[in-house]
Sequence to fold (716 residues):
Amino acid sequence: MSGRVLVVDDEVEMQRALRTGLRYHDFEVRAVGTGEEALRESAAWRPDVILLDLGLPGMDGFATLRALRPATRAAVIVVSVMPGEKDKVRALDAGADDYVVKPFGTDELVARIRAVLRRQADLSAGEPVIRAGDLEIDLARRSVTAGGRAVRLTPTEYELLRYLALHAGKPVTHTTLLRQVWGEYAVGDKYNTRYVVAQVRKKLGDDPANPRYIVNEPGVGYRLQA
Amino acid sequence: MLRRAAPYAIAIAGVIVVTIAIGLVSTRFPVPGLSAFYLLLVLWLGATWGRGPAVAGGVAAFLLYDYFFVPPVGTFAVRGQTELLELVVLLAVALVTGQLAGSLRRTQSAAEALAADERAMYELATAALRSPEVTVALGLLSERAVRLQGVSRFALVAMDFGSAVHLAGGDVNVDEARQATWSYENKRPIGVAIADGAVKLMKTRPESKEPAYLPLASGVAVITIDPGASDPGDLRMLAALVGLADLLLDRRRAVLEAERARGFEASDRLKAAILSSLSHELKSPIASLRAGLTALMAPQAGLQPEQRELLGDLDGQASRLDRLVGDMLALSRLEAGMELEREPHRFADLVGTALHQLRPVLKGREVTLEIADDLAPVEVDELQVGRVLTNLIENANEWAPADGRITVGASTNEERLTAWVENDGPAIVPADLDRVFETFWSRRTRGSGLGLAISKRVVEAHGGTIRAENRRRGPRFTFTLPLARIAATR
Fold:
C-alpha cells in the first residue's frame, strides 16, 4: 500500500472512477460526498492525502479546507473545475498543498499525489541539504550549488530560493513569498518577486523560456520543481 | 382710478390743514420761516405715497403760502426779494425731499418684494429638497409657478437618455413633447429667454398664448405665459423657479444614472455567474469521463493492448471536447467584457510559461527565441496573454514541418512591445489572412476555430493589434502589447 487517499467529491461517477483508478496504483481509497463527512472520515480514518473538490454542496470546499487544516496532517490537494486563479491562491493560502484542475487523467493525479507524499516524507526527515534535480541548497551553510557549480546569491535571492526549496514541488503564492522573504509591508508588490526570480534564474543558469528549476504558476506564483 | 387719486387728495387736504395751522400760529406769534411746516408734510407724503403726491403737495403749499402769507396777501404776486427767495426755497426743498423720499420708498418696497420672493423660494427649495421623490418636489414647484401672475402652465419634461418624459405640471401633448425635444437637443429656447435673472418674453406674436420652451441641463420647462397679464416681479420669480427646476431635474438624472449603472453591474455579475455555472455543468461530466477512461488504461486493470488503445483514443476525444468547451467559455467571457487583471510582466516569463505548459504538445521540438534580455516589462493580464501565446505556438507547431522551426520574438519601442510567432510551414492563402481571426473559422478540419478568435479579442482588449502575414520562410503572426507605465527602476 502506498498510502491512504480520501476522495471528497459529490459526483458518484467521479468517486467511482477515482476509487478504481487509484486502487490500481496501490492506494487505499475511501470516498465521501460532503464536507461534514470529510471531517468525520479524516479524523476517524487518518488519510495521508485528501482530494478535496471545491464545489461541494452545503459546506463548501473552502470552509471544509479551513476546518480540516488544523485537524489533520494529511496533504490536501484541491480539485476544481476551471478554478479562477484567485480560487487557487485562496486555497493555497488556506493551507492546501497543491491543486489539480478538472478534468485530469489518472496518471497526472497519481503523479501529484506521489509528489505531496514524497515532500511530506522529506520534511519529516529534516535533511539539512535540500536537493531538487542537480540543485543543492545547504541550509546550515547557506550555500547553493547548481550542477556542481557554486552559485552566489544576495540575501534576498537566497531567502526566496530557500523558501521555494523548503516547499519544493508545491506552488507558492506571490503573497506568501512576499510575506516570507520581504515581510508584511511588501505584500502586493508582485513585480518584486518577478524581478528577483528572474535574477535567481539567471544565476542558476536557468532558461526562463525553458525553466529547469523555478516554474511559473500563472496567476498564482512559483513552484520549484522537485 | 380712485385708488390712484387718493394720495393726491390727501396731499391737497394736508396742505390746507398746514396752511390753516400756519395761519393760526402766525396771528399770535409772528415767527419767520413757518413755511418749514410744509416741508414736514412733503417729506411725509414722499415717504408714504411716493414722488407724485409729494411734488403735488409741494406745489400746492407753494401756491397757498404765496396767496395767504406772502405780501401782498390775497394775491399770487410777490413783492420783496426775501419773500421771493423764501418761496423758491420752499418749492425747491419740497421737490427734492419729495423726490428723495419717493425713491427711498421705492427701494424699500423693492427690497420687501425681493425678501418675499426669497422667502418663498427658500420655503419651496427646502420642501423640494426634503421630499425624497424628485417628481413630488417638481410638482410643488409647478404649483407655485402657476400662482404667479400671467403664468397659466408650468410643465416639466425630463430628457431621459434621449426620450421626453413628462414629470410635473399641466399636460404636454405629443406635438409639444416634440417641440420640447427639439429645444433640448438644439439648446435653443422657444418663445422666452432668461436674461438678467428674469424670464423675458420674446417679441414674436405678443398676444399669443402659445407654449414657450426653455431647455435645461436635463430637461425642458414648458411654460404658457399671458404676455398682457404678466408682472415683472413675478417673471423674476419664474426665472428663479426655472433655476430650481433645473437643479432638481439634474439631481433626478444623477439618481437615474446611478441606478442604471447598478443595473449594468448586476447584469455583469449575472453573466459571470451563468458562465461559471455553465462551465461547471459542461465540464463535470467530461471530468468523470476522463477519470474513468484513464483509470481503466492502467496495466493493473488487465485490459488487452488494443482495448487500452481504444480507451486512449476515447480519452483523447474527451480532452478535445474539454478544450472546445473551455475555448467557447473563454470566448463568451471575453465577449461579456470580462475585466483584465493587468500587471507588469516580463515578456520572456510569459513565453516561458507558455512553453512549459506546451511541453507535452511540442514533444521535444525546440522553439527559437529572439527576445532581448533587457526588454521593458509589459502591463498585461498574464493568463489571457498566456492564452494568446499558447494558441499561436500550438498553431505554429501544427503547421511547421517535422524538422521545421518555430520562432518567438519580441522588440519594443517607446510605446509598445511587438511580438511575433513564426513557423516555416506552408503559407496562408492571401484571401484567408484576415479570415483566420474569425470565430469558428479554421484551416484545419479538426480545429475548434476559436484559438485565433480568442487571441484577437485578448490582444484588442489590451488595446493592441494582431495580424497574420506570409514571410519568406512561412506564416508569421504579429501582435502588440502595452508597456508597463512605470518601468521597474531596480
Observations:
- The first strand of chain B starts at residue 151 and ends at 160.
